[in-house]
User: Fold this.
Amino acid sequence: MWAGGAWRGELFWKSIGKRVAHRNLWIAVPALLVAFVVRQVWSVTWWFYARRGAEAPS
Assistant:
């Protein structure tokens, strides 16, 4: 964050940035975990469909 022509990153981090970063992590990490699990389950499901000779859903 620029204030008066000088970088004030430390001030921004202490006032707003740290709280925002922690909130984003609490949202992003579980969302990425769920996305990874869904992708893994879907890939195994698709493999079983293909193995049985059925038309794999798209």
